[in-house]
Design brief:
This protein has about 180 residues and is mostly helical. The protein folds into three domains: about 60 residues, Endonuclease III, domain 1; about 40 residues, no CATH class; about 80 residues, Helix-hairpin-Helix base-excision DNA repair enzymes (C-terminal) (Endonuclease Iii, domain 2). A two-stranded antiparallel sheet has the order 1-2. Helix 5 crosses helix 6. The chain is globular, with a radius of gyration of 21 Å. The termini are far apart.
Length: about 180
Amino acid sequence: MSRVLRERFGEACKVDNHMVYTFPSPQRVTESSEKELRECALGYRAKNLLATARLVRSRAANLDAWAALSDVDLREKLCKLPGVGAKVANCVMLFAYERLRAFPIDVWIERVLREKYFPRKGKVTPQRLRVFSESYFGTHGGYAQQYLFHQARVASRDRRVIEVNRPYLTRDDDKGGGGSSNRPP
């Protein structure tokens, strides 16, 4: 999706012996149609990207000026943009505004937080996870989020490899705990 959008609407730049494409400017995005954006595999995001580009181009959303806002105010402004929720706002804060406290919570991170920090709790609300992340990980929460995300993806990949290569193992076997197994004789 990102590559197609950049190749179609971005500007070509040669870096060493490679041709790369910039992300398109808000002006360039507003010159396209929702249909053209959908053709970049954006799906439902096309409408939101176009609407946001129009807000940025008109300066109704002054992204440069927003850099001076507090984290709370910046998150609030970002969440008012079409299609932007807390997770995307925190990603933008972390990666575009370098707000290292920002802690994006997607399904991977939610799973890790529940497993590692709330293993015996029943229902843990998204609000509680957010408050916990902000207070527990503090000023460098963004770094912690990246490490947790990486660990979750690697662990998931490793589980899939075990399941594919040794499908007769149970989880108990993999942990050295014995248990029943459908291991061939």
